[in-house]
């Protein structure tokens, strides 16, 4: 049998994990043609087809499934063995892959990562912004970021910053045309800018005051898919928006947006960075965890 390259086996694992050549190429930072050539060379060296290919999907053959079943723990053991060499280096090295929602990336994770990378020049950080809840182990991530109440029991969680708050905001122009609501119930008479989760459900708005909790389904003609778009629409006077405080604080301070229903704010749990409790933690990831645990939050 011709000699095999270890990275060809890793590429095969990535193609199956991501469900296609293009997604695997993006994950590895190479071209789709490079991924295809590597898989072709692997199949030729083994003398057997590992993947079913169609114009729309890629799936492992029976032989490919069997190889992947045996390959996954073996590649993990190789990575662990190589990572142990880090103890002989003065500085940790490697890549930390993290899956996190956009708001957590914008306001917490990215600033942390940039400061951490200045301290550790041999560590790479790969952040995938994704609002959908994914299996971080299955998808090849070292860690994920979610609210504390969304974490599985077999995960170790590290808090990222203080508790969060949503703000209800609108532009001065909109509020000149439509009197500000005095209670959550009055939002029914307003154009609310709605946001849709990746799974298709609409984000509900939650309020709390003096032990009185309210949750409403916002009504409005405009539905968007990101907080950045929602803020842009609010600044343009399209209606009332429901956004994390960090997205609107500067605009409120400069008078571009006005906060309403401020006395109805509900506190939310902080973000948490979580990682598997039963999986080897690499040197780069350990260094990042130490940095987060020692970080002085404002």
Model description:
- The mean pLDDT is 87.
- The protein has a 5-stranded mixed beta sheet with strand order 4-3-5-15-6, covered by helices on one side. Strands 7, 12, 13 and 14 form a 4-stranded antiparallel beta sheet that branches. It has a two-stranded antiparallel ribbon with strand order 1-2.
- The protein is of the alpha+beta class.
- Strand 3 (94-100), helix 5 (102-119) and strand 4 form a beta-alpha-beta unit.
- Helix 1 (6-18) crosses helix 3 and helix 1 packs across helix 4.
- The longest helix is centred in the first third of the chain and has 22 residues, at 62-83.
- The protein has 3 domains: 6-82, Winged helix-like DNA-binding domain superfamily/Winged helix DNA-binding domain (Arc Repressor Mutant, subunit A, Orthogonal Bundle); 94-162 and 275-294, D-Maltodextrin-Binding Protein, domain 2 (3-Layer(aba) Sandwich); 164-268, 3-Layer(aba) Sandwich (D-Maltodextrin-Binding Protein, domain 2), CATH 3.40.190.290.
- The protein contains 9 helices and 15 strands.
- InterPro entries: LysR-type_TF_proteobact-type, LysR_HTH_N, LysR_subst-bd, WH-like_DNA-bd_sf, WH_DNA-bd_sf.
- Belongs to the LysR transcriptional regulatory family.
- Residues 4-61 form the HTH lysR-type domain.
- Keywords: DNA-binding, Transcription, Transcription regulation.
- GO terms for molecular function: DNA-binding transcription factor activity; sequence-specific DNA binding.
